[in-house]
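Entry type: protein chain
Record version: 2
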Amino acid sequence: MIKLTVFTMASALSLACGAPALAQAIPPASIAGSPAEGEWVKLSEKEAELRRDVNRLHTDHARDMSKLAEIAATKDRALSRSADARQSYERLLASPPPTGHAEMADRWAKKLAESADDWALHERKHEDGAKKWRKAEERESKSASALRKAQDRLDKAVRERTALEQRALMARR
């Protein structure tokens, strides 16, 4: 009964202090005082470390997903601007060059060249965005894979700790 009270008080204190890991470091009554207590503490510490890893990986993955969305939006804007620049270039190209005044023909040629440069610039931006997007997609995929693996390790640790508690409970009966 005393151990249960200490466990409950320690749990309440650790939760009040914002340290839930302390509550898990104190074995339940079925384990306390048994030969499995040391193994239970080790498994609990391993589980707490795995939980920290999973939380960190969740944060990393969320950041990677955010970056991927940002790059995709930039890439899409560049594609839209490229299409607009191409249409502008094609309209200028389709219109006949002014005749009669050399100055007007020069302005038209200059506008045509600027339009072509603008189109090429936005095409390059789109291609650069596509490259960044592929890299970000790979990074996101790797972080998702690492997160799944860490979650699997955590689930296994929880199952091991739970099995130990069940064995200790059965041994006490």
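Comment: The first helix runs from residue 2 to 17.
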